[in-house]
Amino acid sequence: MGEMPDIDVKGLVKRYGDVVAVDGLTFAVQKGEVFGMLGPNGAGKTTTLEIIEGLRTPDAGTVQVLGTDVIAHPSTVKERIGVQLQATALPPFTKVREAVQLFAALYQRSRPVEEVIEEFNLGEKADAYTDKLSGGQMQRLSIALALINDPDLVFLDEPTTGLDPQARLNIWTVIEGIRKRGKTVVLTTHYMEEAERLCDRVAVIERGRIVALDTPRRLISQYAPGTTVEFANVPGLDVESLRKVPGVERVVADGRVSITTRKPETVLHALLDPSAPWVPAEGADGDAGGEGEGAIRDLMVRHGTLEDVFLSLTGRSLRE
C-alpha cells in the first residue's frame, strides 16, 4: 500500500491543565476506509477529531490530512473535509433547504442543493423548519451539511446517539452510501454493533491512548475469542461461586450477569443445575417445576463482540 494515508497522526498530545486528554496518539487512516474510534465519554475521541479537523491546536505531535499539515494550513484542509459534530447549531427559523443553501455558500466547491436534499431523503421536509425535524431527520440533515462540499474525507462524531433503532439503521445505510462513493470516513461511536457493521478498522481509545487497533474481526478473535453467556441478575445470586465453575473465564455482574467461556456446553450444563450453590435459596426450592424466583432467567448465548473486546482491554463496559 504505497499510497499516502488520508490521515497521518504522530505523537499527538493535548492537555487541559493537569488533565492529559490525548496522550501520544499515533495512527493512520487509509483512503476509502471507514475508521472507527471507540471509547467512553472523556476518552479523548472528540478532542482528537477536533485537532485533525483543524479546530484545536495540539500541545505536541504532527497531523497530516490529505497530504497537508493541518496545524500549519487548517483552512486548506477545511475546504476538503466534511464534519458532522455531535450537535448541529443552526439559526432559528431556518428551513431545511435554506440550511443546505447556507452551508453550500460557505465553500468554494459545493454539490447541487436539490441533489443533496434528495440523496438524504429530505425532499418532503425541504420547506420544514429544522427545529420541527425528528431526531433521525436532523441527523440526516447534519450529515448532508457535512457532505455539501463533496469532501474527500468525512468526520462523523457519534452520528446515531439518541436515535431509535429504525433511525439508527437509516443512518447506517447513509454511511454505507458515503463509503460506496469512495469517501474516507472517520466515525466515533458508543455502539459496538455500529462499529462492527460499518468499520474496516477500529481504534479502541482509553484515557487518551490507543489500547488496540485492528479490524473488528481480528480484535474479537484476539481479545474476545470465547462465548458469552448472559442472564438476568437476581437477588441472592452467589457470583463468587459462579467464578469457580469449570470453564468460566470471567464473570461481570451488574443488571445482568455476563460469563465469558471457551467451553459453553460445560458452563451451561452447570448453570442449569437447580441444586447448584450459586442459585438463591428460593430458586432451589422451586415449587412449580423448579422455576422459582432464583432460577436462571432470560438466558442468552452469543459469540464475542467488540463490547467484549472493550471489556477485556479496559475492564469496563462501554454501554451508556
What does this molecule look like?
With 320 residues, the chain is of the alpha/beta class. It has two domains: 7-221, Rossmann fold, CATH 3.40.50; 226-303, Alpha-Beta Plaits, CATH 3.30.70. The chain is 32% helix and 26% strand. It is built from twelve helices and 14 strands. The protein has helices at residues 45-52, 74-80, 96-105, 113-119, 135-146, 165-180, 192-198, 216-223, 239-243, 264-271, 281-285, 306-314; strands spanning 7-16, 19-29, 34-38, 60-65, 68-69, 81-84, 153-157, 184-189, 201-206, 209-214, 227-232, 248-253, 256-261, 300-303. Strands 6-7-8-3-9-10 form a six-stranded mixed β-sheet, with helices on both faces. Helix 3 packs across helix 4 and helix 8 (216-223) packs across helix 12 (306-314). It is globular. The two termini are 37 Å apart. Residues 283-293 have low confidence and may be disordered.
Fraction of helical residues: 25-40%
The CATH topology label of the largest domain is: Rossmann fold
Total of DSSP H or I helical runs spanning 4+ residues: 12
Question: What kind of sheet is the major sheet?
Answer: 6 strands, mixed
CATH class of the largest domain: Alpha Beta
Average the pLDDT over all residues and give the rounded result. 88
* Radius of gyration, in angstroms, nearest whole number: 24 Å
- Based on secondary structure, the structural category is alpha/beta
| Total discrete domains | 2
CATH superfamily placement of the largest domain: P-loop containing nucleotide triphosphate hydrolases
